[in-house]
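User: Predict the complex with pyridoxal-5'-phosphate.
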Amino acid sequence: MPRTPAPEQLAIDGGTPIRGKLLPYGRQSIDEDDIAAVVEVLRGDWLTTGPTVVAFEQALAKRAGAKHGIAFCNGTAALHACMGALGVGPGDEVLVPALTFVATANAVVFQGATPVFVDVDERTLLMDPRDAARKVTPRTKAIVPVDFAGQPCDYPGLRRLAAKHRLKIVADACHALGGRQQDRPVGSLADLTAFSFHPVKHITTGEGGLVTTDDDEIARRLRLFRNHGIATDHRERSLAGTWDYDMVELGHNLRLTDIQAALGLSQLRKLDAWLERRNAIASAFDQAFAKIPGVSVLPRVAGDRNAYHLYVLQVDGARFTKGRDGWYAALRAEGIGVNVHYKPVHLHPFYRNRFGTGPGTLPHAEAAFQRILSLPMFPAMTDADVQDVVRAVRKVAAAYARA
Ligand SMILES: *Cc1c(COP(=O)(O)O)cnc(C)c1O
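Assistant: Here is the predicted structure with pyridoxal-5'-phosphate placed in the model:
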């Protein structure tokens, strides 16, 4: 008679997986309202940047507590435009946390400037203002803190540093739309704030991004950068009844379309409900994982609202027979679509070759990289999905626990 495997045997060792079909780590939610909003634009006069982009920019800026919103074709373009609008160029240095997506640093390199990597706080995994202070030089022009996983950075500390050295703060808030630091929304905490609307982010436009700022001149420069360095856009000329335009500096075409903005506007209406669901899932995870020896979760800051783009679990290699990569493989085999955010940027070959970065220089980011796993986290996850993730983590922890 064939032997059925014991229930605690891991799927990777031939046991029965918790789920037959992989639960992804992130996924968009699209409903009939979203589809109708896009179709309406398709039937109208404006496909690319027109009135719907303007409406989306205004709605998002209002939500984020800022005077201006300037939309871009993706979050990377939004960050690139921030560097361009601040006049960051060759010879300049920009402080970037080591633990982030490569796009944060790439935006600096696009402008011919040098990203200087700053270590993260060991506990929060957010840019450490003390290490940032050590890395300021006369060439430093800006700081780009990243609201990793959705938790706003130490902006009070960063603003003190920025004021002392006359630096601009560009928040990479691609993880943090809808987040809050005490009573201030993400989008109002820095000089410029960049968001992304990639499908795994809080709301989506397929591809898309946006920058918020209160500064009229920076807003004007962001718009120039987005549209070839031309002072007026097609819609403005059409409204003014003129063909004439001046290109005043070199810009790019980084525009969002009205088709995408229609989706973004429709999605924005659901942001608050989705943030609540993300927070409820995080609370369920926090509670469950507090009881498992050898794993830990990121701390919460009282009074802040974490937007929970990611839910990060940290596994203590010394407490288990397998490290992070072993856990990754085991959880994937159980049908749980875990991921790793991120390999520290200074460890990527491009940065090592071009800027001479490498291991041993940013100890907290490098140590965190050995521990971190992103668990599935998206608003459409059901309570049963959440329980599957918890069961899988318990199962792997039990199988790999050191005696
Ligand atoms: C998603 C993301 C970006 C880039 O966004 P895209 O819209 O994919 O270009 C930049 N920084 C961080 C931290 C991100 O998570």
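The chain has a mean pLDDT of 96.
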